[in-house]
Amino acid sequence: MLELVGLLAGLAAGFLFPWAIPSQYSLYAAAGLLAAFCLAFARTDTTEKSMVRAVLLEPGEGHWTVGLLYQAPEASADSSEVSDGIRFAAAQGPDLERALASAEAALPLTANFRLCDYLLLMPGGGWTALEEYEALVLARQCGRTSARLVACRFSCGELSEATEEGGEPLTQLLQALKQARRTLPRLYEARVDGGVLLPVLALEENGPTALEEGVFLAETEQSPWDAEKTAVYRLLTGKGEEFTFWLGERPLILRRPLLSVEAGAEGFALRLDCQTAAGSIEPAPDQLARLGQLCTGLLAERWAAGQDLLGLGAYQALQTGAALDPTKNACPPLRTDVVVL
Prior knowledge:
The chain is an alpha/beta fold and 341 residues long. It is built from ten helices and 13 strands. Helix 1 (2-16) crosses helix 2 and helix 8 crosses helix 9 (285-304).
């Protein structure tokens, strides 16, 4: 062993001090230098912390409840792919910052938010909750602005009751979040885009389950959307892997949407090229035409609400130099064609 250390030290000394003649003292000095380099690059963020995986926000009347889904310190929690040893802690406070501090104090070790990939809005949470939490993250680094958002139909108390007999629902919750991650918007997108469509999680008999419907959240709007409208939004924005539409007795399941935009004197022509997934029907022309109408209708609706969902105004500015603003200009004529390859 000593010979190996001496060899490594000698190699380090030869690399760092090629002009020096190796000796017993130079070997010891090089070994110390090598150890210093190892310590400098060693990770101090280890599993000896409570690794927070998700933050749950639940505003109430005159108080806040904050829940933390975290990895037990003795578990292998240093990877975002690990799902074992999940635990849950929740606490209340008169405001968000003190509720979060109380929840952190309930953890067995110091909270670490490096793997905090998800932010869950519980019943009562809305746009203001997102704004307050984002401000707190930027001020205290107690989370990530890239955390993915989801709305929940259960409260922190209901989650605690469901997990009293064991931690399996917590593992299932994290797995459900991972499976739905392609449909989850990020926290910073709410501010950038002016509105986000949140997937919905519910506690069912078989555990936490992602529903087909969604909740659209904006500064002046918070409204539930049915499954069809949610699927149209996701298809247009590419949020997801498969998009299911019931335009007949059997489902039309599309995948890999590719959107192209053409600006003309009479507005915009949009084309969505898609593939059908396994188990899908082969769509008839009238079904594709109806789907195109649904897309056009949703784009016009969002424009009227002040949201340029696809950035058509910026596209127009690049093409003609004249920008369009949904808060100042009427919605331009739109046509959407859906093509199955």
